Structure formats: C-alpha cells, structure tokens
Amino acid sequence: MKYDSLLNICGCIEYAGTSRSLLVFTDGACSNNGNEGARGGLGVFFGPGSRFNLSERVATSGVPTNQKAELEAVARALEAVRNTVIPHRPRTVINSESSYDYRAVCDMTHMRLIIATDSSYVVECLCKHMTDWSKNKQGALVSKQGQLVENSQAFLRLQNGVEELSMVGVQVANYHVGRVENKEADGRAKASIPGDLLRSPGRATPYQRPTRLSG
C-alpha cells in the first residue's frame, strides 16, 4: 500500500479558486532528550489570544524524544482544527454574509490548512519519504528496504488526520520555517515542561505578548 494520497500534505493538490488559508505554528520540546527522566511538551499557535492555542505535556509510549514531541504537536493541531475550528466555521461564514445558499456556504468552508514547523525531520518525512513507505503485515510502516520506520504509529496518525480533514474540505500543507518564525509555538512547548531546563537567552518565552497575528 503506497501513500500517494499524502501528496496533499505537501500542498501538491489545491482546491480550485480557494484563497482561504489558516496558518498554524507547531513545535515540540523535550528535556533530557531520549534519556531516562525525559519530559516532552508541545505548543500549537493559531494567533494572539486564540482559544485554540495549546501548551501541553506529551504522553508517548516509551521514552519521550524531540521527534515524538514534534509529531505530537502536528497531530494535536490537526485534531484542533477538525474538532473545534471546523465546527464553528460554517456559522462564522453564514454570519458574515447577508445572503447565501447552502452550496455557497459549503464552498466557502473549503480552505488550506498550513502547518508550520521548524522541524526538518517532520517536513522531510511527510513530504519526501512517506509516499515511499508501505504497511507490513503488522500494520506498521516500513521503508522500501523493509526497515521499520521510526515513529511509525505517529505518522499513521497524521495520515488519518489529513484524510479526515480532506473529507470536510480542508487541504493540509506542511512548511518548514525558522525558529524565529516559530517562536510562539516554541514558547508554548517549553512552558508545558516544568522547570527552566529548556529556556535559553534570546528565545521568546510564552509569557511575552504576541506581536503579530498569523493565520
């Protein structure tokens, strides 16, 4: 089974005439990365003051790592859009239009969801490698060489999230951004982990007032 449908995740397929986009920043963090006592956290940033912003600890199987935290952040962003943003969008569109019909409202709810992350690992796996992976008999992802893909279940979860959003008119694209551009999600990821282990000079903390709206 090939994952050609995941071309959607890299923005290769677009809804004709759709100019509506939602930009969401994600980041994962991990103290004592990959070692005993490691603690993972994630941050999702929709915009200043957004009720959809997230700062959460990461519960993963095995020892937490940066990669697991980064993948969990993307998964939580997809879930937030599917479960909280999308249900409110038709009402928002209807309230903004003086006249409408059902078909027009459905068309207007189609949009692109742009997931921005500073993790080259996440973007390269989703946009370059995943279409070459297949499922083995145990339901795990393997490479062309038959090697088990690390964090296989996390990638399958992302695939399911993308497919669910596609069914409600949302096209997902992933983009790699720099750490400066991703500072709001970064701050929220670090804030979810107790202590000051992850804070460093010159990096934004979650307690700074956001300076720009993204999305």
Helix content: 25-40%
How do the strands of the widest beta sheet line up side by side? 3-2-1-4-7
Q: Structural class per helix/strand content? A: alpha/beta
Distance between the termini: 34 Å
Strand content: 15-25%
CATH architecture annotation name of one domain: 2-Layer Sandwich
Name of the CATH superfamily of one domain: Ribonuclease H-like superfamily/Ribonuclease H
| Strand count | 7
Please tally the helical runs, counting DSSP H or I stretches of 4 or more residues: 5
Describe the overall structure.
One of its GO terms (biological process) is DNA replication, removal of RNA primer. Its EC number is 3.1.26.4. InterPro entries: RNase_H, RNaseH-like_sf, RNaseH_domain, RNaseH_sf. The protein has 215 residues and is an alpha/beta fold. It has a domain of 142 residues: Nucleotidyltransferase, domain 5 (2-Layer Sandwich). Helices cover 34% and strands 19% of the residues. The protein is built from 5 helices and 7 strands. Helix 1 runs parallel beside helix 4. The longest helix is centred in the middle third of the chain and has 31 residues. The radius of gyration is 18 Å and the shape is globular. The two termini are 34 Å apart. The N terminus and C terminus are likely disordered.
